[in-house]
From TrEMBL:
Residues 7-83 form the Centrosomal protein CEP104 Zn finger domain. Residues 81-129 are annotated as: Disordered. Residues 120-129 have a biased composition (Basic residues). This is Putative centrosomal protein. It comes from the Eukaryota. PANTHER family: CENTROSOMAL PROTEIN OF 104 KDA, GLYCINE-, GLUTAMATE-, THIENYLCYCLOHEXYLPIPERIDINE-BINDING PROTEIN. One of its GO terms (cellular component) is cilium.
Amino acid sequence: MATNRKHQEVVEVSGQTEHLLTECESRTKFAKCPRCSEAHEKTELDRYVTEKICEPLAEGMARCPLCETQILANDESWKSHLMGHNGCPLNPRKGGKKSKLPVKDKKGPGAAGKQVPRQTRGKKGVKGR
């Protein structure tokens, strides 16, 4: 599973935080949060930490940058979370369908408890848009 973070480089979801902090052309705009260990834009980091928007990351766990769910930090858990039947509700590549489950991501399509529309392909093109 890969994701595009506002530029042309494709990065595995499980490595997105490391990419933003060490490899990304825009890495100078990001910093590691001391509470949750995720990469956040430096302009928002102080507010993010002060308001305790994030949850500390448990030992041996990783956090999905798409839906913010904590999962075990191993390849099998990432695979299950991203591609499993009840996996990541914000995975755009999961069978071509988007979940209707509300998510807590404040920036994504499921923000503020809104439902993510399910898209299906009919004979005359994409329905449900």
